[in-house]
Design goal:
single chain, about 375 residues, mainly beta, Methylamine Dehydrogenase, Chain H, 5-stranded antiparallel sheet, 29 strands
Amino acid sequence: MTAKGRVSAPESRWLRDAATAMRLRQVTSQPSIHHHPFFFVPPWDSAMRRLVFVSHRTGAPQLFAEELESGRLVQLTDRDDFAEWSFFPSHDGRHVFFVAGTGAWRLDLETLAEDRLADFGAVEMRERGMVGAAMGTTALSADDRWWAVPVKHGKVSRFHVIDTRTGADAVILERDTIGHPQFHPDDANLLFYAGPLTNRVWVIRRDGTGNHNPYPREHRLQWITHESWIPGTRELALVDWPHGMKAVDVDTGAVRELTTFPAWHAVADGRGERIVCDTTFPDDGLHVLALPRGASDSRAAERLCLPRSSNVGEHWGGPFPYNDGPREVYAPQHTHPHPRFSPDGKRVLYTSDASGHAQLYECWLDR
């Protein structure tokens, strides 16, 4: 008998961070792995009716949702082929899009019916490993119309864009590697994607035109990672690990320094006014930084809390490790906080395995 649709009692409880006294809400408590999507994917719908996440409590990764009004937890899927970093809740709160097996699926959050929007055939789907393109993240445009799914097909990666209204599936690009796609929050015709680790920053129009590299890597020691759009601008924020952050205008190529603070996973809020980030080597907790408005505008980072996650991934403690090509690294992503602002900007969601199991937490910014 399927467990899909099973409802569980709320698991949340309130805590205080020992280092900063910020209010924390622990969302999940069952002793298994839990995580939200990757840091640039919103786990809530825009109205914050549900928080969608992954739980391994059934013995395999499945989608769950916390109903924010009641606190109840609802199991959304019961599959053995779910790609756990592929899911993307729709902004309107009606659906969750995800990859399972070699298909692209849409789940109705009211009926829990699943529709297959695309079948990619006998393909590998993702590269090997735990990081970058191997995670299998996907992207949904802010109007919920377009869904971008990279698919590994033999020696090439194909960039699929699916029309969620008609089901039409177009391959807009083939190249060596395509990872971490992101639609521009204000322009559904523009996407970022990560190319090879030695030259990651690429943008492309939704119709496949305009593919270009607005920020080539400056030298062999530079480690560019964890890109994300800044709403209200034409800029991508880039982590120049571990030296700070830059922003590049994808139309002009103009680059500006955002901060010298050693941000790790970093993403802006919905207004493009603040960035939240985690840290590692050393782990000094989650921080919020006001985005500078000019070259002389320097803002201090404010520490929110100490997740005390294990942050597995020894490669982050050394120099750029990929100059000689891809390399297998052990970096289970549920051990990283991946902080994310809520749509209303009042809380930050993160994952921590400090208890021995990865659980979801919210840091409430009103103290």
